[in-house]
């Protein structure tokens, strides 16, 4: 299992990688392995500001549907369009090409409430 050290993690198994005032958000390697084959991602919140911990979309696997929770408050700027045709990118490359949304971070201080890689590994 992969635990990159340059990102932060939520207890709901989302990750966030901050780049300046923006960030990429996805689900962790652990989450994708638990869900199994991902078949659809629904993010109806493009252009909306979603609060920390609030649901910004859902991810559908062969056997289940799970909510996607926002790691920090942010405006959804972009949805990864590649996932429409290839939702399996989340399975194959969860921290790279399998990112789900790009956001404008509204309150960088909220990042302090998230876990680093070592803390995330400890809860699994």
Keywords:
alpha+beta; OB fold (Dihydrolipoamide Acetyltransferase, E2P); 124 residues; globular; six-stranded antiparallel β-sheet
Describe this structure in words.
There is one protein chain. The chain is an alpha+beta fold. It has one domain: OB fold (Dihydrolipoamide Acetyltransferase, E2P), CATH 2.40.50.100. The protein is 18% helix and 35% strand. It is built from four helices and nine strands. The protein has helices at residues 29-35, 82-85, 89-92, 117-123, and strands spanning 8-9, 14-19, 22-27, 38-42, 49-50, 55-61, 65-69, 74-79, 101-105. A six-stranded antiparallel sheet has the order 1-2-3-9-8-5. A hairpin with a 4-residue loop joins β1 (8-9) and β2 (14-19). The longest helix is centred in the first third of the chain and has 7 residues, at 29-35. The radius of gyration is 13 Å and the shape is globular. The N and C termini lie close together (11 Å). The model has no long low-confidence stretch (mean pLDDT 97).
